[in-house]
Amino acid sequence: MKRVWQVLVWLTILAFVLFYPMLISVYVTLPLFIGFAGYLLLRGLEGQGWRYIFLPLLYLFNLELNLSLPIFLSLVAVLIYYLAFYPSVLFLKRCSVCVAILSVLLIDLIYGGLIIVYDFIFATSSVTINTQLLYSLIMDVVAAVLL
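The structure assignment produced for this chain is given below.
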């Protein structure tokens, strides 16, 4: 019976990963969870298992496709954070909530900076910076704290 529940939980998570980006494209007030997915990806890279790598990658790719964002820019933001800032943040290893909050905030800020640079270089307008983006950032941090 326990195995059945585990399968149901992972199927629910997979359904969320596949269908939530589609809901975001319809209901624009839903948070993006880019930083949270990036933090889960980092946990996977640290040895939590293949699911922590595969599901965030699938979510980020699906999100970028559904919202017409630059492909793999969120992955680039996560890798920049992982290479440049993550070793410095690990001194807070005893406070896992602090690591999660800082990771999510920095991944979101790096992604926002990369979007601004991308828009400047290619003279486009991918994302408008407003209070909705701030709401998305706050919900991202709340999700990291709840993890």
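Interim note for the steering committee: The chain has a mean pLDDT of 89. The chain has seven helices and no strands.
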